[in-house]
C-alpha cells in the first residue's frame, strides 16, 4: 500500500493517545498514510517543517495551545492551504462549534458519539464535498 500514488495523507492531532491509536489503526486499515501528534505543538512543528498532509483532523480541547489556536497559526502562516481541516469537538460544546465555524474549518465531528468507522465515513464525506 505504501507506494500507492493516490494514497491520502492524514495528520491526527489529539492529546488522548487512546483515541489517536484507535483512529490511526482505522485510517491505516482504510489505506491512508497516517501520522499522529499528541499535542498541537508537535503537530504544528511537523507542518512548519514541511509535512504536507491532505487532511488534518485535530481535537479542540488540548493543553498549552488548543486545536483552534493551532488552526489560527496554520492559516496565518499559510501552511498547507489545500489541506482539509476537520475538528473533533466534545459533545455539547456550542462554543467550540462557533469558534470552528469562525475559523472556516471544513468540518467538525462530535467525538463522544462517533465510533471510528463513522469518523472515517464522515471524513470521506467532508473531503468529497470539499472537492466538488
Ligand atoms: Mg483533548
Identify the notable features of this structure and list them briefly.
single chain, 132 residues, alpha/beta, Rossmann fold, five-stranded parallel β-sheet, 5 helices, globular, binds magnesium ion
For the termini, the CA-CA separation is 26 Å
List bound small molecules: magnesium ion
Q: Number of helical runs?
A: 5
CATH class: Alpha Beta
Helix content: 40-55%
Provide the gyration radius in Å. Answer: 14 Å
Determine the CATH topology.
Rossmann fold
Task: List the strand order in the largest sheet.
Answer: 2-1-3-4-5
Description:
- By secondary structure, this protein is α/β, with parallel strands linked by helices.
- The protein has one domain: 3-Layer(aba) Sandwich (Rossmann fold).
- Helices cover 43% and strands 19% of the residues.
- It is built from five helices and five strands; from the N terminus they run βαβαβαβαβα.
- Strands 2-1-3-4-5 form a five-stranded parallel beta sheet, with helices on both faces.
- Helix 4 links the parallel strand 4 and strand 5.
- The longest helix is centred in the C-terminal third of the chain and has 16 residues.
- The site of magnesium ion (MG) has 6 residues, from loops.
Please sum up the structure shown.
This protein is of the alpha/beta class and 132 residues long.
